[in-house]
Amino acid sequence: MSELLCGRFRLPLTRPLVMGILNVTPDSFSDGGRFDRVDAALERARQMIAEGADLIDVGGESTRPNAPFVSPEEELARVLPVLPGLAGLGVPVSLDTRRTVVMREALAIGGVDLINDVSALEDDGALELLASANVAVCLMHKQGNPDTMQRDPRYADVVAEVGGYLARRVALCEAAGIARARLLADPGLGFGKTLAHNLALLKHVPALEQAAGVPMLIGLSRKSMLGAITGEAVPAERLGASVAGALLAAQRGAAIVRVHDVKATRQALDVWRALEAAE
């Protein structure tokens, strides 16, 4: 697929796109509490766009392992105030939510171009809502919920099982009326997976894309899998590992990489693409 129909935008997929992470939460694993005021959130979004972000992904609920429950009302109170400002920044706005009620309220006020759902539209009414909305959708795989997903994840064949799940969710979306040109898939690194599971999924991005039949979004920025490899316990100190992971994902065919460190990631991708284009 050469482009993604993404709300107000048609995004060419001729190069890997960079999605900048904007957490308007007090408890996200890496930057919780830094951007939970509207002015700080918008300033951070403008900074990421200046650094080369192609999309901004805003979320009001932390889905890190062992994250506490956040009510839909609290999630709405966090994300709705920032959406109008984000909508005027000239790039697609992605809303990271798994709740139909949050999707509905956000879509009603406008400015959302992509719904990034860690539950792949499993919440009641989500499929029907987004079938009638002019936005893109990212369908993510997870095993379990954030409060329990890392206790003992098990798979017989993680690549086949995750690929099969994503393929089934894509088929359900199409049956509901969501065009394939509006869809992305995400294997959900760190969402109910061990380090071995995560590495297998990252290694086999092409097989996952073939199974799902839609472009792949990969997010591993600052995640604990990188800490397990490098020994770095502090998420914000995993810059080198995060950039390497994003570059490896792009080299394996990821259409979009979701990152905290936009500038460093953009530079790495630019160098790789220049080398690929060289005689």
From TrEMBL:
Cofactor(s) needed by this chain: Mg(2+)
Stored SUPFAM superfamilies: Dihydropteroate synthetase-like
Domain Pterin-binding: residue ranges: 16-270
UniProt pathway: Cofactor biosynthesis; tetrahydrofolate biosynthesis; 7,8-dihydrofolate from 2-amino-4-hydroxy-6-hydroxymethyl-7,8-dihydropteridine diphosphate and 4-aminobenzoate: step 1/2
Pfam family name, one: Pterin_bind
CDD domains found in the cross-reference section: DHPS
GO cellular component, one term: cytosol
EC number(s) per entry: 2.5.1.15
Enzyme class of the recorded protein, top EC level: transferase
rRNA processing found in the keyword field: no
MF terms (GO), sorted A to Z: dihydropteroate synthase activity; metal ion binding
InterPro entries in UniProt: DHP_synth-like, DHP_synth_dom, Dihydropteroate_synth-like_sf, Pterin-binding_dom
Catalysis: reaction(s): (7,8-dihydropterin-6-yl)methyl diphosphate + 4-aminobenzoate = 7,8-dihydropteroate + diphosphate
Highest rank taxon of the organism: Bacteria
The entry's keywords: Folate biosynthesis, Magnesium, Metal-binding, Transferase
Any one GO biological process: tetrahydrofolate biosynthetic process
Xref: Gene3D superfamilies: Dihydropteroate synthase-like
Record's function text: Catalyzes the condensation of para-aminobenzoate (pABA) with 6-hydroxymethyl-7,8-dihydropterin diphosphate (DHPt-PP) to form 7,8-dihydropteroate (H2Pte), the immediate precursor of folate derivatives.
Similarity field: Belongs to the DHPS family.
Protein name from the UniProt record: Dihydropteroate synthase
The organism of origin for this protein: Crenobacter luteus
